[in-house]
Amino acid sequence: MNDLAFVQRAVGLLDAHEIETWIFGGWGEELRGLIKPREHVDLDLLYTAADWSAVDALPLDWIDGKRFPWKRAFVLEATMVELFLVQRDEHGWFTELKRRRHDWPENLLSSNGQLRIASTAALASYRHSYRVDAAA
Hints:
Elements: H1 4-16, E1 21-24, H2 25-31, E2 42-48, H3 53-56, E3 61-62, E4 71-76, E5 79-89, E6 92-96, E7 101-103, E8 109-111, E9 116-118, H4 120-135
Parallel strand pairs: 2-5
Antiparallel strand pairs: 1-2, 3-4, 4-5, 5-6, 6-7, 8-9
C-alpha cells in the first residue's frame, strides 16, 4: 500500500544504502499542503549526485524501461519508486531532461523535521514547467 508508512520505508531503504533523497511529486505536494490528500500510484524522489553510480550498484527490482540519464525507477512492495537525478554546476541545481534542462530554485532541498521533502518552490516550479511542456 502506497501510504505514508510506505514512503518512510522506501526512503529508509535508500538511506540504509547511503542514498539521500527528497520526497517529490504528488507525495511532496501533499506533505507540503499544496494538494489535498489522495491515493498515490507511485513515489517520486529527488536524488542529488554527480551521477548514478551509487544508485546503479543497488540490488533493487529495477524497471529497465524507466532507465534514462535523468531518471531511474524500481519496484518496492508492488509500487514504482522513481528517482530523478539532480546535479549542481556553477549555475545551481538542475536536471537534464530529455528535451530541456530544468533549473531548480536554490532552496530546492528542505525538511519538515522528520522527512526530507523538496521545497514548496521546487515543487511549484517543476509542476509549472511540466504543464508548459505538456501544452507545447
